[in-house]
Write a structure and sequence with these properties.
Elements (H helix, E strand, L loop, with lengths): L1 E6 L4 H11 L9 H17 L4 E6 L3 H13 L9 E6 L4 H9 L4 E4 L5 H17 L3 H24 L1
Length: 160
């Protein structure tokens, strides 16, 4: 059994700029679209050979999440199959984590820890990466506000 954690990189712009500056071919995908295509292709390969793998799908991308769920359904894999887990960083894409867990999928939130000098730069890169995804930050804020209103309305029911 091979354990795989597939993630998108948080260094795309920095790696491309460095390769350009130093005059060598970029070691990564040329853009986010190519990264998404490769991520989904790797995920498809693993699901097509799931008898040899255990998979952690670490993504804040809804399309890839739905694709993984579809792969599981197409292969009649149980939502609680111990070989397959989903995860997002704590405080990011909570709507994805919540809905996966509510539907019964193995889901977790990742909490980076370690020396501040190591963790803070990592979290800043991840926050910058997520805000660079067109519309994602605004959508997450809208979802959070909607949930806040839902909970406030639910709370009022119990008071009266």
């Amino acid at each position: 059994m091979i354990g795989c954690k597939i993630v998108r990189g948080a260094y795309m712009e920095k790696e491309n700029a460095r390769a350009n500056k130093m005059g060598y071919p970029s070691p990564i995908c040329e853009d986010k679209e190519a990264t998404d295509v490769n991520f989904n292709a790797v995920m498809a390969y693993i699901f097509n050979n799931i008898e040899d793998f255990e998979l952690f799908v670490g993504t804040h991308n809804e399309v890839s999440t739905y694709l993984a769920m579809q792969f599981m359904q197409d292969r009649n894999l149980d939502k609680k199959d111990g070989r397959i887990w989903f995860g997002q960083l704590y405080g990011m894409s909570d709507h994805i984590s919540f809905n996966l867990a509510a539907e019964g999928y193995n889901t977790c939130k990742l909490i980076p820890f370690g020396p501040v000098r190591d963790v803070v730069p990592y979290l800043i890169r991840r926050a910058n990466e997520n805000t660079s995804v067109k519309g994602q930050t605004g959508r997450e804020l809208a979802l959070l506000l909607e949930e806040k209103e839902r909970r406030a309305g639910k709370h009022k029911k119990f008071i009266h």
